Automatic annotation (TrEMBL):
<dbReference type="InterPro" id="IPR001611">
    <property type="entry name" value="Leu-rich_rpt"/>
</dbReference>
<dbReference type="InterPro" id="IPR014338">
    <property type="entry name" value="CHP02996_rpt-companion-dom"/>
</dbReference>
<dbReference type="InterPro" id="IPR032675">
    <property type="entry name" value="LRR_dom_sf"/>
</dbReference>
<keyword id="KW-0343">GTPase activation</keyword>
<dbReference type="InterPro" id="IPR027038">
    <property type="entry name" value="RanGap"/>
</dbReference>
<keyword id="KW-0677">Repeat</keyword>
<keyword id="KW-0433">Leucine-rich repeat</keyword>
<protein>
    <submittedName>
        <fullName>TIGR02996 domain-containing protein</fullName>
    </submittedName>
</protein>
<dbReference type="Pfam" id="PF13516">
    <property type="entry name" value="LRR_6"/>
</dbReference>
Length: 413
C-alpha cells in the first residue's frame, strides 16, 4: 500500500473530513494526476459554499475545464453488482459517493462491500418495497448517509425506515410523487430524523401541492430547513399562502417553486411573505407574467436575494426593465433564459446600476438581437460577469466577435 492508498483508506474511515480529501488531492498531484487533484479540490470547495458565492461560481463556470471533466472518470468507475448503479452525478466532494439501488434488499445485500470501497454518502432507492423496510432500517451503514432519495415515494411503511436509529448524518431527504397518503406524511413529520433535516425535496401530484405542504405549514416546531424544493407539486396560491406564513419558512435560504402554475397571484402572495433568510429563489416555468415580476421586486426579501431563476416564463422586455430599475439588489446569479427579453430588455439589464454585482447572467434563447448584444458588450456595469449565456439567440458574426472581445471565454454563444 502506498501513501495515496493509505490516505484513501483514511477518507473511507472518516468520510466527513474534508481536510483528508484535500491531502488526498495533494497526493494525487504528487503522483502526476493533477487534473483529478484539481477536480477533488473544486468539488470540496463547491460543497462548502452556496452556488451564488464567488468561489462557487468561479469553480462551476470560469474553471470548467479544470473541474468539469468528471465525465471522463464516470466512465472509469467500476461496474456495481446487479441492481446497483452509480448516480447520474456520482461524485460527492470529489470522490465516488452517490449510488442508485433498485430496492432496499439489494442495497443491504451489498452494503458491506460498497462502504469498504467507496465513501458513499448518497443513496437513491428507485423502488422502495414495503417488505424491505425492516431490514433496511436495521442496516448500520445508514449512519454514513447524508442524502436519501425515495424516487417513487412510499406509503405507510415509510415509518419503519424513517425511525431507524442509524440516520445520524442524514440531512437531505427527497420523496417522490407517490408519497400521497396522509399516513405517510404523518409518519414523516413525526419521525426522529425529520427534525434533523436541513434540505427537503418533495414531489406530489395532488392538487394544491399535496398533504406535505399543508403539514409543514401546521408544524409548531418544524425542522430548521435551509433548502426547500417544492418544484412540480401543483402548488396553488391558496396552498402557498399558509406555508409562506409558517415557522417552516423562517430558516429557508434556498426555495424552489419551479414548475408550479403560480401565476401573478402566486407571485404577489410570495412577495408579501417575510422570508428573512431567503437568498436563492427559483421560479422557472411558473407563469408569473410581468405583474408578478413587478410584485416580486417589491418584496422585503428581494434586496437580499443572491440568485433568482425566472427561466421559461415567456416574460416580455418590460420584466427585464423592471429588474434593472428595482431598488438595491444583491443579485449575483440571474436566469432569464427562455423569455422574450429581446434587445430592449438586454439593453435595460446592461444599464441597470443595481445589477453591477452579477456574476452569472443567463439569456439563452431570449430573443436577443445585435443591438442587445452590443449593449451587453459595451456596458461598464457587467465587468464582474464570470458567465454570460447567450446560446440560442440570433446574432451576427460581428456582434459575436464584439462579445468575445469583451468577455473572452466567459461568454457562451
Amino acid at each position: 500500500m502506498n501513501d495515496r492508498d493509505t490516505l484513501y483508506r483514511a477518507v473511507l474511515e472518516n468520510p466527513d473530513d474534508d481536510t483528508l480529501r484535500l491531502v488526498y488531492a495533494d497526493a494525487l498531484e504528487e503522483g502526476g494526476d493533477s487534473r483529478r487533484a484539481a477536480f477533488v479540490r473544486a468539488h470540496v470547495e463547491l460543497a462548502r459554499v452556496p452556488e451564488y458565492e464567488p468561489e462557487a461560481v468561479q469553480a462551476k463556470y470560469h474553471n470548467q475545464k479544470k473541474k468539469a471533466d468528471g465525465g471522463r472518470w464516470i466512465t472509469e468507475l467500476p461496474p456495481l453488482p446487479e441492481g446497483l448503479s452509480w448516480a447520474r452525478d456520482p461524485f460527492r466532494r470529489g470522490l465516488p459517493g452517490a449510488i442508485q439501488s433498485r430496492d432496499g434488499a439489494t442495497f443491504v445485500a451489498h452494503a458491506d462491500d460498497l462502504f469498504a470501497q467507496y465513501p458513499i454518502e448518497s443513496l437513491e432507492l428507485r423502488g422502495p418495497r414495503a417488505p424491505d423496510m425492516a431490514a433496511l432500517a436495521a442496516c448500520g451503514w445508514l449512519s454514513r448517509l447524508r442524502s436519501l432519495s425515495l424516487v417513487e415515494g412510499v406509503g405507510r411503511s415509510i415509518r419503519l425506515l424513517l425511525d431507524s436509529p442509524y440516520f445520524d448524518r442524514l440531512t437531505d431527504l427527497h420523496l417522490g410523487a407517490q408519497l400521497t397518503t396522509p399516513e405517510a406524511v404523518t409518519a414523516l413529520v413525526r419521525s426522529r430524523m425529520f427534525d434533523q433535516l436541513t434540505a427537503l425535496s418533495v414531489r406530489e401530484d395532488r392538487q394544491g401541492g399535496g398533504s406535505l405542504v399543508g403539514a409543514l405549514a401546521r408544524l409548531a416546531k418544524p425542522p430548521r430547513l435551509k433548502k426547500l424544493d417544492l418544484s412540480s407539486n401543483r402548488v396553488t396560491d391558496a396552498a402557498l399562502a399558509p406555508l409562506l406564513a409558517s415557522a417552516a419558512m423562517e430558516t429557508v435560504e434556498e426555495l424552489n417553486l419551479s414548475d408550479n402554475n403560480l401565476g401573478a397571484e402566486g407571485l404577489e402572495t410570495l412577495a408579501g411573505a417575510a422570508l428573512p433568510n431567503l437568498r436563492s429563489l427559483n421560479l422557472i416555468r411558473t407563469r408569473p407574467t410581468g405583474a408578478g415580476v413587478y410584485a416580486l421586486t417589491g418584496a422585503s426579501f428581494f434586496p437580499e436575494l443572491r440568485s433568482l431563476g425566472l427561466g421559461g416564463n415567456n416574460l416580455p422586455p418590460a420584466a427585464a426593465e423592471r429588474l434593472a430599475q428595482a431598488g438595491r439588489t444583491s443579485l449575483r446569479i440571474l436566469g432569464l433564459d427562455g423569455n422574450r427579453i429581446g434587445g430592449g430588455g438586454a439593453a435595460a439589464l446592461a444599464g441597470g446600476e443595481n445589477l453591477s454585482g452579477l456574476l452569472v447572467l443567463d439569456l439563452a434563447e431570449a430573443g436577443i438581437d445585435d443591438d442587445g448584444a452590443d449593449a451587453l458588450a459595451q456596458t461598464a456595469r457587467l465587468g464582474g460577469l464570470l458567465y454570460l449565456n447567450l446560446y440560442g439567440n440570433t446574432l451576427t458574426a460581428t456582434a459575436a466577435a464584439r462579445l468575445r472581445k469583451r468577455f473572452g471565454d466567459r461568454v457562451f454563444l
